[in-house]
Known about the structure:
Blueprint: H1 2-11, H2 29-42, H3 47-54, H4 57-61, E1 76-77, H5 92-109, H6 118-139, H7 148-155, H8 164-174, H9 186-189, H10 192-214, H11 219-241, E2 248-250, E3 263-265, H12 267-274, E4 282-286, E5 295-299, E6 311-315, H13 318-330, E7 335-339, E8 345-346, E9 351-352, H14 359-363, H15 371-376, E10 384-393, E11 399-405, E12 417-421, H16 422-428, E13 429-435, H17 441-446, E14 452-454
Parallel strand pairs: 4-6, 5-14, 9-12
Antiparallel strand pairs: 1-10, 2-3, 4-13, 5-6, 7-10, 7-13, 8-9, 10-11, 11-12
Amino acid sequence: MKRILILFIVLALGAALVPAQSTDGIITAKMLKSYRKAHAEMTPPGLVNVISNNTNITDMAKNNARAGKIDPYFAVKLDIKGITAQKSTGRCWLFTGLNVIRQQVREKFNIDKFEFSENYNFFYDQLEKSNLFLEGVIETRAKGWDDQFVKWLFKNTLGDGGVWNMMVDNVNKYGLIPKEIMPDTKHGESTRTMSRMIRTRLRENGLRLRQMHLAGKKEKDLRKVKDKMLAEVYRMLAIHLGEPPTEFTWRYKDKDKKISTAKTYTPRSFFKEVVDVNLNDYIMMMNDPTRPFDKYYEIDRDRDILEGQNWTYVNLTNAELKAMAKRSLLAGEAMYFSCDVGKQLDRKAGILDAYAYDYEALYGVKFGMDKAERITVGESGSSHGMALVGVDTLADGTTTKWLLENSWGASAGHKGYLIMTDKWFDEYGFRLVVLRKFVDPKILKIIKGKPQLLPPWDPMF
Length: 461
């Protein structure tokens, strides 16, 4: 039935939709009549009722010609054990960042599966972001409510999303712990209520700090009150997520079934012992065709720690990103990758294919924007982070597809992974984080310069 309906629509694509135009921009009765006439000419009788009442539009638009075109095999695939699950949260950036480095723990201790506690680092992410907001209020206390930064600040008070640099600063300051030491709680797996309550309190406290300034209080007085406000946030987080340990004892069973001797760590000592790479050696790059390539950028206030580093990146072509990604994968190193995951995603099959759905045939409408145009009008942007862990090529070296380790659980997609075609990478891929040793010398030279500062309300971010 679906094929018949699509055929009707495709045959009707030649029907011209030429409305009776008005001169003042108002929709007139004559225009509506012309719309109805054109729609009737393009649409077989009863088709609208069939579609709107009985069929999922996405299922209707699925391009069956792509079935079987993308296999699940990869020439290069990293040995990943244990798919993670961020549940109903925006913590993909944290899961992905920690997934990129957890392989080192498996190799160091000869264990089959391992996962860091995302809940532990998320606790401090939320506490630090709360401090960043309150400090922003103190910094802008003399500005009016109509100031763009003040409006942005109170609108973007606290969220659970983030990017690579936030994970780096968080781990460098607070360390890491195994997941079993501080597992997720119900509220950690579904952050909506917790975030809403803390945001409400932060906005109220931000208002109080501004009122104190108007009443003549000095900056040091505001900071004393701010400390009490942060203590409230700490308590709210502890109620929802549990209180992070300052010290813990851990042991493990290796692949040979041997149980290790229990050892006591602090989160920072555990991080120092199990992660052998300097997290600051990773470099973030991006493909944003709306801006000049080979330029260095910084996003103001895009961090989670007051004393931390803003998000910085080098803007590059997709060809350059892919070349570095291949070098990293061939050396056995996973990477942080982010994209516009909702576009052309076959959730059931776990495939990201630029041609997975043919909405043009279904609607009789041409969707013609390129990547730069989609970014410009807010139609596309980076929405999800995953670990890039595999690549497949033809005999002549042509890349056909990539493998992404997702954090939606093992039952989602293709056994917890998403398979991304090379064309989809071009259209909807955005950020890639690669170790310095795999980065082109040209890029290393670029990041020695001063980045161009972009405002936190930039449409791309």
